[in-house]
Specification:
Layout: E1 2-7, E2 12-18, H1 25-31, E3 37-43, H2 44-58, E4 65-70, H3 79-91, E5 98-104, H4 106-118, E6 124-129, H5 132-138, E7 143-148, E8 151-158, E9 163-167, H6 176-192, H7 195-203, H8 205-209, H9 213-233, H10 249-258, H11 265-282, H12 288-294, H13 306-309, H14 312-319, E10 331-337, E11 340-346, H15 349-363
Parallel strand pairs: 2-9, 3-4, 3-5, 5-6, 6-9
Antiparallel strand pairs: 1-2, 7-8, 10-11
Bound molecules: nicotinamide-adenine-dinucleotide.
Amino acid sequence: MSKIIINTEQASYPVIIGESNLSQVPAVLKKHKLFNNLFIVIDENVSKYHLSYIKSVFSKHDGRIIYEIFPSGEKYKSDTQIKKIYSALLNNKFSRDTTLIAIGGGVTGDIAGYAAATYMRGIQLVHIPTTLLAMIDSSIGGKTAINFNKRKNVIGVFYNPQLVFIDTMFLASLPGKEIDSALGELIKYGLLSNKEFYNFLIKNIVKIKSLNKNVINKTITESIKIKAGVVSQDEFEKKGIRKILNLGHTFAHAIESELGFRIKHGEAVAAGIICALFLSTKVGLLSSSRINELLLLAGTIHFPRIIQKMNNQRIYKAMQSDKKNVNGKILFVIISDIGKIVVDVPASKNDILYSLNKMKDFCFV
Ligand SMILES: NC(=O)c1ccc[n+]([C@@H]2O[C@H](COP(=O)([O-])OP(=O)(O)OC[C@H]3O[C@@H](n4cnc5c(N)ncnc54)[C@H](O)[C@@H]3O)[C@@H](O)[C@H]2O)c1
């Protein structure tokens, strides 16, 4: 097992990474002196494959445990579902001396994290991410949210967990399309970091997709280190540094909203990053000789046809109510090369539509 400590202004918490290490969780909870009343939210697909194993692990825990199975899918990251979590907590008489454990992907982590942040003004939180996307990204950094009125992540708070516990064993049951979906956020880390990590990802893309143990371990560890470096400098996205993590996300969130969350978040992020790369060339920041190399990883993803058919004008309209807009201006993160990022760049409607069209051409040649 390895450990990375995330240090922010408000918190310091460990991320423990290993393979088949879940049995250690009860001892780790004890070591970190977490409350032993456990409310465990488990994604329904995770429960389908792993519930009896999870229960056998937690049978070693000496405290009260209630399991809540959470339905799978982005549409359940909703106000209706959050009420169900609050009701289950209340009905089972959980008070502030509770540790909420989220076992699932980014959807479970985001909504359970929001529940932990708000129930009785905050209870302890542990993430046990079970998708590649959640392991490399969403379980780290303290963003929690639900979608509301068809808008992505518009209700939420920053709330750090006490602990993140990663067992890569969970990836064995993950459908291949979910690994592809994680590539969206992974491409982001490749582009934000340095040529060494970007080249590592390109060289090992087949091994990542086939879950080669050493490669997956390095991929997760390096991505977490990159995110940790960013959030430790700018926990609340106030200084601009954390905004680099939004590369491609202005496009992605509008695409997700417009398509009614019928595509995977990671697919939307990958499409959004491709748009951001074309926008970077359009505004003259990225040379047309460099873009091909920066598109290499994205070129390995199979995108759903629904992206090709989506209406660009409506995507543009959805962007007009992006939560990151300032004074009505839609702002983008763009890139001049690997590790060279510029934030808060406004763009004209024409350039935005151009980028969407170029993305479609690239994805569906
Ligand atoms: N908080 C953050 O900083 C942050 C960052 C990135 C993304 N996100 C959010 O994360 C969400 C996307 O996360 P995701 O891609 O993990 O989606 P997800 O949680 O919907 O999981 C994807 C699918 O995999 C299934 N699943 C999960 N683990 C499994 C396993 N081990 N075996 C079999 N099936 C499994 C789920 O049931 C679901 O069908 C989005 O809502 C996005 O907004 C948040």
